[in-house]
Amino acid sequence: MKKIILVLCVLLMAVSGCSSTKDNSGRLTEIYNKVKEAYGENYLPSMTFEKEYLTEVMGVPGDDIKEFIAEGPMISAHVDMFVGIEVVDGKAQEVESALQTYLEGQQQNMMMYPMNVPKMAAAKVVRVDNYVFYLCLGGFADDETLDDTAQQTYYEQQNEIAEKIIKDILGK
Fold first, then answer.
1. I want to staple 167 with a disulfide (CB 3.0 to 4.6 A). Which of 68, 76, 119, 172 is the partner?
2. C-alpha dihedral over 138, 103, 125, 100, to 10 degrees?
3. What is the dihedral sign for C-alpha 77, 34, 139, 60?
4. What number of other Cβ atoms are within 10 A of residue 45's Cβ?
5. Longest Cα pair distance anywhere in the chain, in angstroms?
6. Distance between CA 58 and CA 24 in Å, rounded?
7. DSSP run (H or E) holding 78
8. 129 pLDDT more than 70
9. 111 within 8 A of 140, measured Cβ to Cβ
10. How far apart are CA 157 and CA 147, in angstroms?
11. What is the pTM of this model?
């Protein structure tokens, strides 16, 4: 009996995980795929996040999420993250505010990993209609002579790659 319950629980987790993490309507999937393609080996998020991460860690109200794709770092020393959320009608402002609050918290806590300060300073939240994105993407600045300001500019340019893809696909 225990084995049957265990198998049923595993199947339930697999089914719920698959259906909740990937957008079935296509626009988020298209954006995600084009972003990954654009960055190539410099797309560094390494782990898929479940809805619970968005609600419990990032503070996004679960009822406001229609569809989402979310990936981030497997270890806390890294900060690269792509979160795309299609929001329920009328809730985009709430989701944008939650992601902005999360971003500001991350930016304030960067002293533990000072090498990430310029990258986190360049991270951004982008909203287009009922879609909200959290972007902290791009390869590392290879030029060790760059000061923090120049590195931040580099990372801002890296995030602009994803932002342009988002706006092109969503027609903005």
1. 172
2. 180
3. negative
4. 22
5. 63
6. 23
7. none
8. yes
9. no
10. 16
11. 0.82
| DSSP 8-state assignment for residue 42 | G
d(CA 172, CA 167): 5
85: which 2 tokens? Answer: 């959320």
pLDDT range class, residue 75, cuts 50, 70, 90: confident
Q: Name the token pair of 134.
A: 């959290």
Would you say 92 and 130 are in contact if contact means Cβ atoms under 8 Å apart? yes
Pairwise CA distance, residues 161 & 159, whole Å: 5
Nearest to 155 by CA among 104, 118, 125, 127: 118
% of the chain at pLDDT higher than 70: 85
Beta partners for residue 83, in sequence order: 70, 134
Q: What angle do CA 35, 38, 39 make, to 5 degrees?
A: 90
Q: In what order do the strands lie in the sheet with 124-128?
A: 47-48, 65-72, 81-87, 131-136, 124-128
| Residue with the two structure tokens 């999420």 | 65
